[in-house]
Please model this.
Amino acid sequence: MKIYKKGITHGGKFHADDVFATALLKKLYPDFTVTRVISVPDSIPDDTVVYDIGRGRFDHHQNDTSERENGIRYAAFGLLWKEYGALACGSENIQQKLDSCFVQKIDDSDNNGTHDSVSMVISSYNPSWDSDESSDNAFDKAVSMAADILNNLINYELGSERAKEEVSLAYNKMHNKTVILERFAPFKSVLAETDAVFVIYPSNRGGYNIQCIPVSAENNESKLPFPESWCGKEGEDLQSESGYKSIRFVHKSGFIASANEFEEAVKIAADLVQSM
Model:
């Protein structure tokens, strides 16, 4: 793999595209430094990558820019992610997943001006019209934030990958369509496509959470939501309505509840499954 020590991107106003492209390169090459310019020098050293300017391999302003099968055109971040995302994640699966749920939104925002909250936040780092702050200094701040976001996304997905084995083992011991986890672990990608209906795990607020499993990994609709009459209630009102002594809370959307006692959490789930 080619090692880049330096980068060249455009100066002036920055966007999420060039900011996240820089954050990715800094993740790959810890000593990476970037120079922001108005025009690309005639001579580029071998250890320098040019992106989002210059109409080269990692630019997207030329007429023949490439696009994905779904029609979303690549911007600089997407082009670099396509080339180096698997290396940054350590996984082609995570690379593709993050491209679908995150990178494409940044690319589409830069190419077409579509509304994207992350792109909007990054753009807000640009100095205001009457500020004395240099654009390069503001760019560095935005890159620092983007690096945190990118690292968190990757680490979350890596954690989800590690969770699959633990959740699968718990599923193999399932009873009454309810999976018991000794600790919370991301479970949706494993359990959504199974016959499991509830998952129970210790709550970080004490007691136990009873969570409804969604109908699919892409659709958060619960297979079996909690009764509507329970939703949004807590404490004695909920206990009186439900008939369970240790239940303490049901979310107003009906996808999760909590109970103080493990045995009763299991009974709540079992009774609801029995009523299906």
About this structure: Helices lie at 16-28, 76-89, 92-112, 117-123, 135-171, 188-191, 235-242, 262-274. The chain is about 40% helix and 10% strand. The first helix runs from residue 16 to 28.
